[in-house]
Amino acid sequence: MSSFTRPTPQPGILEIAAYMPGKSGKPGSKAVKLSANESPLGASPKAVEAFASAAQQLEIYPEGSSRLLREALGEVHGIDPASIVCGNGSDDLLHLLAQIYLGEGDEAVMNRYGFSVYPIVTRAAGARIVMVDERDYHADVDALLAAVTPRTKVVWLANPNNPTGTYLSDAEVRRLHAGLRPDILLVVDSAYAEYVTAADYSVGLDLVRQYDNVVMVRTFSKMGLAAARIGWMVGPDHVIDAVHRIRGPFNVNLPAQLAGAAAVRDVEFTQRLKEHNARWRDWLTERLSGNAMRAIPSQANFVMVLFETDQAAAQAFASLADGGYIVREIGASYGIHNGLRISIGTEEAMRAVVEILSSLEQRS
């Protein structure tokens, strides 16, 4: 009889720290969730209607390539639908890219406070993650390039970044790409692109069209369809072909496909969401920039607020929770123990958050 008593995970799997989602209030509570960067305006009414229409077709497998969704994305964004692949959330696509391009002995490079899913998918593929220090919570292109070795196969870049909200300009992203070998895949994760107002920002689509080693990943989660789990990616033909070979055969369900297609075509709702976010993001940043707090200027739908001490951040989290507002602690996931990430919510929620945190500052 074998000496092994149970199935054993591959080396390194149990060393992975599981992803930690934003907290919610206790069941039955009326706490306002500002911890997961969800839409404060809900979903597009057209998307809700389309989602409901799928109820009459639940016994039928969805079309496997998400054709209706890819056609809608292509129509609105000016992209060849054949260059698009959809997934069960953008993290599904990140996992697939890691499985395809990373393996034992390989390395993937990311900035220190980049999205916490990148280390998970990298290590799950048997590769090593290389974290590079930032400059004042901004990705440092020179440092990223200096970290590249002959073993580097992927560079992960969230732009704008989560949890900091900072971004790299189009010129800086291009400088990063220009310094990479042609065999290194640059993954531009533009999850928060809908909320960016900076004039020098680019979603990365032009780079994808110009080069064979760049992909752009997007999501519907931040624009009102987090529950539907829809991600999409644009890439060169050889990358799209490889992803199609290993993705699940029906990896985006029919209600999600229909809701996503309706949502992307509802450009008026998306614009309204962007305008609401810009107004209250900038207002929150200004109001929380004081002696005891520092709000990092953001291009996403959240603001990262830094406190003078770890204890002050913990007290702020507790006070907000006591007041009925749940924000994101980012110490355990990102190592920023003196910081909190606050999603942009309704006007009422933003004013309440400022009132609670301002009262703490006055007492300190």
From TrEMBL:
What catalytic reaction does the record list? L-histidinol phosphate + 2-oxoglutarate = 3-(imidazol-4-yl)-2-oxopropyl phosphate + L-glutamate
Q: Give the GO terms filed under biological process for this record.
A: L-histidine biosynthetic process
Which Enzyme Commission number(s) are on file for it?
2.6.1.9
Q: Which cofactor does it need?
A: pyridoxal 5'-phosphate
Stretches assigned to the Aminotransferase class I/classII large domain: 30-356
**Record flagged with keyword Amino-acid biosynthesis:** yes
Could you tell me the keywords of this UniProt record? Amino-acid biosynthesis, Aminotransferase, Histidine biosynthesis, Pyridoxal phosphate, Transferase
Q: Which SUPFAM superfamilies match?
A: PLP-dependent transferases
| Similarity section | Belongs to the class-II pyridoxal-phosphate-dependent aminotransferase family. Histidinol-phosphate aminotransferase subfamily.
What binding partners and quaternary form does the record give? Answer: Homodimer.
Protein name per UniProt:
Histidinol-phosphate aminotransferase
Naturally occurring in which organism (per UniProt):
Devosia chinhatensis
Gene symbol of the encoding locus: hisC
